Fold this protein.
Amino acid sequence: MLQGALRGWADDVAHLLQVPRPLAVLLAGDPEVFLTRRPEEILTAIHGLCDALRAPFTAARDLALAEPRLLLATPAQVSEQLAALRALLPDAPRAASAVAAANPGLLLPPHPAGGGGGGAELRAVLTSLAAELGVGVSAVAAAAASNPLVLSSPPPPGSAAAALAALRGGGLGSQGRVLDVLLAQPALLYANPQELAASDAAISEALSSHPPWRAALSASLDPAAAGLLLLQRRPRLPLLVYLMERGLQGRIELRDAIGMGQTARYREFGSDWLEWLERFKARERRREERAAAAGYGGPPRGEGGGGVDWSGVGGGGAWAREDERDEGNQGVDWGQVDGDEDEAGGEEEEESGDQVDSGGEGSGGVDRRRSLSVVGGIVVNWPGGPSKLDLHVLRAQRAAARLYAAGTAGLLDGYWRRQLWFREEGGPGSAAVGGGTGDGSGDSSSSNGSNGSGGGGRGSGSRGRERAG
């Protein structure tokens, strides 16, 4: 329960920003913002962000809630950092806005003692990915606009080059086509290269019986749809095979067939689809058993992939089980910075459906909270990718590193934690700072009501903590 100065401050901020009180309290998570900024000054600072970023008020407010230290920077400093990001991405201004919206810490000015300012870090990530793929930095940045989380948690070194090598010369055709698919679906950069090669071979073999679809895969099919089919071969390929075996392939485009989703039941096909699906799964199991007997196998779990657990990514496991609405892609939209929503893979966000694969094979150990999410045909979250909690912890660590100059770490934080109102609310570390009460009377008295005796109780509780200290 909020009390004292924090409650009043949070109430005023919530009223001025038109947000719930819990969101206003997030701004107090940075002690310097709480101690040095009045609610009116916070509102003024957000309006300054609007001018600096040329963004609507709600977008600037969301950025401030995600990175409270933006409120300590001047509009000129924020504009300078955004200009630096756009200078890194001269051919993709929308990508710069999308990257900044997903990583607000990049807009912070450099700290005088070092740290802050995301230009150098962003430049390193973009340059590394561009070098592995053999493309320009702007092309990688444009791909990051569809999924900016890639820049927050970049793939392990060498994984992009491995994915390119796994798909080169396969069913996608030329290397330029492979690059287009990889950039349209950045989640492919995290996938197991051997699984990618196996998916590519299986898709090419299945589509070879219908030349128009086979030609579309290597030429006219939208790269986002081709990448989605590679990532979700197990749940989506059976439907394509079923349509071809029933002679229905001439009635539907490959793009639309991929976008039908991964549900195991299609009402228009009736029981024939379910019976066929069981036979198909049995056939696939037998083929996989023969491949395993011949000595084929992916890399050991947790090895050969830069320390990343590839289980469930790229060919099975969690991909075939969940396709939830994306909850982590509700970021800032600066005039549709992510571009037009004409990507293939489905006009609508796909909802959860029954799994198509045969069971839990390959899905053991996968964190179900990191299930696959697809929006507009673009994979925006995947097993092994950065979760919302990971990003929150990462941003908190970076903010803490920027907060204090060298040799002064913890001074302001210690002052904040020693305040009586903070200890009474049982904030993090309050027990370590104030200690426990000598006889227990301090805590019990401080929990009284807001009458006169309650105030006296808080005073005695404070003295009890001082004696214990």
